[in-house]
Write a structure and sequence with these properties.
The structure holds two protein chains of two kinds. By secondary structure, chain A is mainly α. Helix content of chain A is 73%, strand content 0%. In chain A, helix 4 crosses helix 5. Chain B is of the alpha+beta class. Chain B is built from seven helices and ten strands. In chain B, the strands form two sheets. A five-stranded mixed sheet of chain B has the order 1-10-9-6-7, with no helix packed on it. In chain B, helix 1 packs parallel to helix 3 and helix 2 crosses helix 4. Classes of the chains: A mainly alpha, B alpha+beta. Chains A and B meet through helix 3, helix 4, helix 5, helix 7 and helix 10 of A and helix 2, helix 4, helix 5, strand 7 and strand 8 of B.
Chain lengths: 194, 217
């Protein structure tokens, strides 16, 4: 688990630390923040795990090579989506055909609606990654509480949450309010709401 | 729906009368988890109008939309992540590295009669040297392109955080990049036919293997 100090930093701050001070932990934080975004795209496009890992590796290295030249450091997520998709198309072209998933390039070109669906899904994944990263940069109690309250299926009852977290019944409400405020501040800083 | 202890109406009304609406309250409002009198107080504040709270209400709505979908993200294997993290140690710097062309020490297509070799294997085995490192390459023609497997071998053990980055060039342009693993092994798969250079990036220089011919099966 990376230090909460690093996890709370914005992308431009982490990029600057990586470039200016050779700060390896800043780079690691960027990778951990966006690992799910980069890896999920080839997986959702139907590539098998070894190819998805190749795409992941290529994208991380391209990021490293382009870190100093990013025009919008505050839009790193968008840059990664575009770059990862390019790497996926490149790999698909090299394979020419036989992608295991029907969402292969040729199908996507012929079927606009499927392409639109994939586009929407990638946008959704990008937003989920930002929320995941923001949750990760909260303290463990906040993270656990908000996940239980909002992102667990089936949603546990109030009593179950009290038991799971071993907290007094009356503390959930104020803690929840504080955690949501913190989450909102982090999301604001990280460009979730544009 | 959650009705939270200590979340009394007086407090909410007081907050709304005297300040902006807390984000948690806006979440509840969007989630239809507030009672009618509270809802009226919130709506009254929003229609004052309060631009900030209207914007925060939109933010709450967008956040709830994310939470409404199951998490579709997939985490990569840990070793894949660690290789990407380790790549930072030998970051390709903005300044150009000194380039050293490696010497070819061994080529199985040249060592044995070509017909005999090609009759038994589609793999070409090459060994290059540049100072303290050797680079072992195996090139195999596959249906959808060539597979290039390699290993950087050093006289000195490579530090775990100092594994080389390898680049594949065509006409002087980087077309693929890979990080080698802790054993110095790397792979490029499904590479289209052509003549390539391979660059092995070390701390202060790049060792280049020139003119590698890759073909499809």
């Amino acid at each position: 688990m990376i230090g909460s100090d690093y996890a709370a930093r914005t992308d431009p701050e982490l990029i600057a630390a990586s470039l200016d001070h050779g700060d390896r932990q800043a780079w690691e934080t960027l990778i951990l923040r966006y690992k799910r975004l980069i890896y999920s795209i080839p997986v959702r496009m139907g590539f098998p795990p070894p190819d998805a890992a190749d795409v992941f590796q290529s994208v991380c290295l391209l990021l490293l090579e382009n870190l100093a030249f990013l025009r919008r450091r505050d839009r790193l997520g968008a840059w990664l989506v575009i770059t990862t998709r390019r790497e996926c198309w490149r790999l698909a072209r090299e394979r020419q055909a036989d992608l295991p998933d029907p969402e292969a390039e040729a199908d996507l070109d012929r079927d606009g609606s499927r392409l639109a669906t994939l586009e929407e899904e990638l946008v959704q994944i990008e937003r989920q990654v930002l929320v995941n990263a923001a949750l990760d940069s909260l303290g463990s109690r906040c993270r656990q509480l908000l996940r239980l309250l909002f992102w667990t299926e089936p949603r546990p009852s109030y009593d179950e949450i009290v038991k799971l977290m071993s907290v007094p019944e009356g503390s959930i409400g104020p803690t929840r309010a504080r955690c949501l405020e913190k989450l909102a501040r982090i999301l604001q800083r990280n460009g979730f709401w544009r | 729906m959650y009705f939270l202890p200590g979340f009394c109406l007086y407090r909410i009304e007081r907050q709304i009368m005297t300040a902006h609406i807390p984000f948690a309250t806006l979440i509840d409002y969007q989630d239809h988890a507030v009672l009618a009198p509270e809802r009226e107080a919130i709506e009254s504040h929003l229609t004052e109008p309060c631009a900030l709270c209207q914007q925060n209400l939109q933010h709450a709505s967008e956040l709830l939309a994310v939470f409404a979908q199951p998490d579709r993200t997939v985490a990569p294997p840990e070793d894949v992540v660690q290789r990407a993290v380790a790549a930072f140690t030998i970051r390709p710097p903005a300044v150009s590295l000194s380039r050293i062309v490696a010497s070819l020490l061994f080529d199985n297509f040249r060592q044995a009669p070509l017909a005999a070799v090609r009759g038994v294997t589609r793999s070409r085995q090459l060994l290059f040297n540049a100072g303290e490192i050797d680079i072992d390459l195996q090139i195999t023609a596959e249906r959808y392109g060539a597979t290039l497997l390699g290993q950087v071998l050093s006289n000195q053990p490579l530090a775990p955080e100092a594994v080389p980055i390898v680049r594949l060039y065509r006409s002087g342009e980087v077309i693929r990049t890979a990080a080698s693993d802790a054993q110095g092994q790397f792979a490029f798969r499904a590479v289209t036919a052509g003549v390539y250079d391979l660059g092995v990036m070390l701390a202060h220089r790049e060792v280049v293997l020139e003119g590698l011919e890759l073909a499809h099966d």
